[in-house]
C-alpha cells in the first residue's frame, strides 16, 4: 500500500493534459479576424488529392483568398496570405489569422510571413474540431454543393476551375443564413445594413396590409453587429448559432 506522499505512475503513463482555452476574438467589421484551413479535393486516382487553401473573413463570411495546389506547403500558405492582404488593402492593419494545428499552419515560413505582415496568429486546441468552425463550415458548404463532382477532379486545372466558379457563386450569390441572408460580398462591403433595413420595412408594410396572415412577429432583419471566434464557455452557449453551417 502506498503512502499519501508516494504517488507515482507506472511506466510511461502521464497525468492527463488539459489544453488551455483558445483565445477569444471578436470581429466588428471586415478584415479584423480571418480563419484559414486546407481541405482535400479528390482525384479519380485512389489516394491522390489536390489541396484547397482557403482564407475566410469571419465577420462577412467572404472567402478573401483561395488557391488549389498539388501538395500542402507552408510556402504556398504564406504566399496566399500576402496576396490576400494586398488584395484586401489591409496591410499593417490589426488582423488575426486563426487556424488549426496542421503542419502548414505551424510552419516557420508562414509564421515569419505573418510577423513581417503584422498578422497575429491564433490556433485552435489540439484534437478539438470546432475551434476552427468557420473554415469547416465553408468546406461543408462546398462539398455538399449539388455540382460537387462525385468522381473527383480530373486534373489540377479542373479543380482550380471548379473552385473558382464555386467561390464566385459563394461570395456574390449565396445568401448566407448566419448573416441574415445577404451575400458575403454585400456584407464585406458594408451594404448589409441598408439591405436589411429595406427588408424590415417591406415586411412591416406586408404585415400592416394583411395582419391576418401574421401569427407571429416578422423575421429579425437586424444586421449582425459582431461575430465571435471561440467565445468563452458561457457566451458559447448563447451564440452557438453563429458557429454553425454556412
TrEMBL record:
Any GO BP annotation: DNA integration
Compositionally biased tracts (Basic residues): 9-20
Region (Disordered): 1-25
Segments forming domain Integrase catalytic: 26-192
Domain of life: Bacteria
Gene Ontology molecular functions: nucleic acid binding
Protein known as: Putative transposase
Native source species: Halopseudomonas litoralis
Amino acid at each position: 500500500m502506498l503512502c499519501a506522499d508516494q504517488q507515482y505512475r507506472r511506466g510511461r503513463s502521464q497525468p492527463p493534459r488539459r489544453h488551455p482555452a483558445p483565445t477569444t476574438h471578436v470581429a466588428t467589421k471586415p478584415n479584423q479576424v480571418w480563419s484559414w484551413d486546407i481541405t482535400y479535393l479528390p482525384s479519380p486516382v485512389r489516394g491522390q488529392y489536390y489541396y484547397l487553401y482557403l482564407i475566410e473573413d469571419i465577420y462577412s463570411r467572404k472567402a478573401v483568398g483561395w488557391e488549389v495546389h498539388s501538395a500542402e506547403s507552408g510556402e504556398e500558405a504564406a504566399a496566399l496570405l500576402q496576396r490576400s492582404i494586398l488584395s484586401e488593402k489591409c496591410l499593417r492593419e490589426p488582423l488575426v489569422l486563426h487556424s488549426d494545428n496542421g503542419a502548414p499552419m505551424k510552419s516557420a515560413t508562414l509564421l515569419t510571413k505573418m510577423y513581417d505582415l503584422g498578422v497575429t496568429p491564433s490556433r485552435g486546441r489540439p484534437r478539438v474540431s470546432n475551434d476552427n468552425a468557420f473554415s469547416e463550415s465553408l468546406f461543408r458548404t462546398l462539398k455538399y454543393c449539388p455540382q460537387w463532382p462525385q468522381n473527383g477532379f480530373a486534373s489540377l486545372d479542373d479543380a482550380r476551375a471548379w473552385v473558382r466558379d464555386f467561390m464566385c457563386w459563394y461570395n456574390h450569390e449565396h445568401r448566407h443564413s448566419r448573416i441574415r441572408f445577404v451575400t458575403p460580398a454585400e456584407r464585406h462591403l458594408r451594404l448589409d445594413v441598408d439591405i436589411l433595413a429595406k427588408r424590415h420595412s417591406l415586411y412591416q408594410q406586408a404585415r400592416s396590409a394583411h395582419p391576418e396572415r401574421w401569427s407571429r412577429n416578422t423575421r429579425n432583419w437586424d444586421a449582425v453587429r459582431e461575430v465571435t471566434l471561440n467565445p468563452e464557455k458561457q457566451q458559447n452557449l448563447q451564440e452557438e448559432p453563429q458557429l454553425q453551417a454556412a
